[in-house]
Amino acid sequence: MGVNGMRGNSSIFFNCDPDDFLEDLRKIFREEIRLALTVFHSNKDNSVSPSPGNELIKVRELCHFLKVSKPTIYDWIKCGKLRPIKIHSRTYFLRKEIDELLNS
Predict the structure, then answer these.
(1) How far apart are CA 6 and CA 1, in angstroms?
(2) Cβ-based burial of 81 (10 A; exposed 0-12, middle 13-18, buried ≥19)
């Protein structure tokens, strides 16, 4: 039995088609796995080298590289200049996107 003794009809809990919901979950899992693999491959102690430009940069490293403060980085995220990648509670940036921003 489900919540409050109800059976079967889970659609009352979702405001979308169950198939669409499952597809959205699959997309989220694929993206999380891709990001986890990127982190794994960008680990400096790992013997497998990452694809060029797919290295992840921490906020602190980006601040040092650009010679700006953390609040500046977060302001740039808010206005859309930077696209963060969140992994758990940590924020990263793709090296190739930083390079593209600097070259534009």
Answers:
(1) 6
(2) exposed
The residue ranges of every structural domain in the chain are: 15-103
pLDDT tens over the chain, length 104 residues: 444 454 555 545 657 787 888 888 888 888 877 777 776 666 544 444 456 657 889 999 999 999 999 999 999 999 999 999 988 888 999 988 888 888 87
State the pTM of this model. 0.50
